[in-house]
């Protein structure tokens, strides 16, 4: 699957930039982390091309950030952008890999972690284990924000998602990439994603306490969800 993201990396920013609210919702999630944790060190898990990394720095310009993504192409694009010297680093590796997540400063736990649009890309049987691994990287009381799509339990959201993907996203990917595989996977993965109640149950099993659930707004109402949790 990471190969699909690598193949689409060179046009990824263009396509997500066409999504109304995409960057605003990342800013909102990062802002909640900054307010709740006042983080000095942040893990950006599933960082992609660095959009979530930039959101973290807008919310917490004092923080150091380590971005991790499974796609080599996404990490390459993220590294090519301009970042504050010595403040941001990126690594290619799987979510849940302790060594990749910790980096060279592994003896220092993170204060917060943003995992935007990551959980749905982790196989269901691995999700709780990945969340537990994230918890091992956080200090006690450290904050985790999970932001992702799910249409489970909402016929309206399922219909909106189907229409947006097949009338806008997938045709646009055909025009810009000449390849629709990544965005057909996106359509399918959201339709198959478990509901937010299951996220919260996994978080508790992994050693977190969910403290808030925030819905998306606009056309992403009942589709986008952000769960804030703290490490026990």
From TrEMBL:
GO terms for biological process: methylation. InterPro entries: SAM-dependent_MTases_sf (IPR029063). The keyword rRNA processing does not apply. One of its GO terms (molecular function) is methyltransferase activity. Keywords: Membrane, Methyltransferase, Transferase, Transmembrane, Transmembrane helix, Ubiquinone. The keyword DNA damage does not apply. The chain crosses the membrane at residues 159-178. This is Ubiquinone biosynthesis methyltransferase UbiE. It comes from Brachybacterium endophyticum. The lineage of its organism: Bacteria, Bacillati, Actinomycetota, Actinomycetes, Micrococcales.
């Amino acid at each position: 699957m990471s190969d699909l993201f690598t193949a689409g990396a060179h046009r990824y920013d263009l396509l997500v930039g066409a999504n109304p609210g995409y960057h605003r919702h990342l800013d909102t999630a990062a802002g909640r982390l900054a307010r709740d944790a006042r983080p000095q060190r942040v893990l950006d898990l599933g960082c992609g091309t660095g959009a979530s990394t930039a959101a973290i720095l807008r919310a917490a310009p004092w923080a150091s950030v380590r971005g991790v993504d499974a796609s080599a192409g996404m990490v390459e694009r993220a590294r090519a952008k301009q970042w504050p010297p010595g403040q941001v680093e990126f690594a290619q590796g799987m979510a849940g890999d302790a060594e990749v997540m910790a980096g060279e400063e592994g003896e220092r736990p993170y204060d917060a972690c943003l995992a935007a649009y990551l959980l749905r890309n982790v196989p269901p049987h691995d999700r709780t284990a990945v969340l537990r691994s994230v918890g091992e990287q956080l200090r006690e009381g450290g904050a985790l924000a999970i932001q992702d799509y799910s249409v489970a339990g909402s016929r309206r959201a399922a219909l909106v998602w189907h229409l947006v993907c097949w009338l806008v996203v997938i045709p646009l990917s055909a025009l810009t990439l000449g390849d629709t595989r990544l965005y057909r996977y996106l359509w399918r993965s959201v339709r198959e994603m478990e509901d937010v109640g299951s996220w919260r149950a996994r978080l508790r099993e992994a050693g977190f306490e969910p403290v808030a659930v925030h819905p998306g707004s606009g056309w992403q109402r009942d589709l986008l969800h952000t769960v804030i949790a703290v490490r026990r």
